[in-house]
Structures are given as structure tokens and as C-alpha cells.
Amino acid sequence: MANKLKANEAIAYTDFFQGFSYYIPIILIWLIGQILVSVGLILLIVPGVYLMVGYFLAILLHIFAGLDFWDSLEYSRKVVTKNWWKFFLLVISLIVLNVLGAMIFVGVFVTIPLSFYVAYCAFETVTEGALAEEPTEV
């Protein structure tokens, strides 16, 4: 939906649910990422925090760049590392926002979609031009 919004295309109700067609790779990316972050947190807190922030764009890279789960995780880490402190502040801000939304109970119905949209906007900003589609020949 956010991609259509950016391209000034008409948005239909079904566009809000298009992400569910990627559920298996998304679950795989999320699960492997969380396992690696957990191992990093158990061994030493700093590697876990680094990976948590580094994998921030992994799911979006899979959806929009078509990378497999491991390449998505690695490319996300490499892209985020270039501006790690900015992404760290963004991730912390989103965590605080969602915790506040959870305290209001129904607030998470606003804060979680907002967090996903903010992540999409950050993704678009960071990868602008890098993931441009190849022109199709007619």
C-alpha cells in the first residue's frame, strides 16, 4: 500500500493485505534474525543490539528487492551499518512509540502500522535509486 501511495496510484482495500502473500519468507527472515539477535544478546549485549538494528530493513529488502532470506539479512546489515546511529535512534523511537501504544491498549492499532510505514519510508530513503526497476523493452 505504501508503495502505491508513493507512486500516486489508486489504493484499494485489498492493498493493505498484499504483504500476507510473503508470509513464509517473512517468518523465516524474522525467525533467523531473532535467533541471531538472541544469541548476540546472550553472549554479549552489544552484538545483539547491533544485529537488532542491522536487520531493520531485511523484510523490506526481501519484498522489494527479491533477495532470499540470508541475502536480505546481510544486505540490510550492510546498508544500516553505514548510518547505524541514525537507525538506532529510529528503532528506539519506534519501540518507545509502540510501548506507549500498548499502554493505551488500542493505541497499538495505530502505532504498529505507523511503525511499518516509518520503516518503509526509511527504506525508500536509504535505497532510493539503488533498487530501481530495470526499464522493460517494448
From TrEMBL:
Protein name, UniProt field: Transmembrane protein
The entry's keywords: Membrane, Transmembrane, Transmembrane helix
The keyword Glycoprotein is assigned to this record: no
Superkingdom: Bacteria
Record-linked PANTHER family: MEMBRANE PROTEIN, MEMBRANE PROTEIN-RELATED
Regions crossing the membrane: 20-43, 49-67, 87-110
Keyword Zinc-finger attached: no
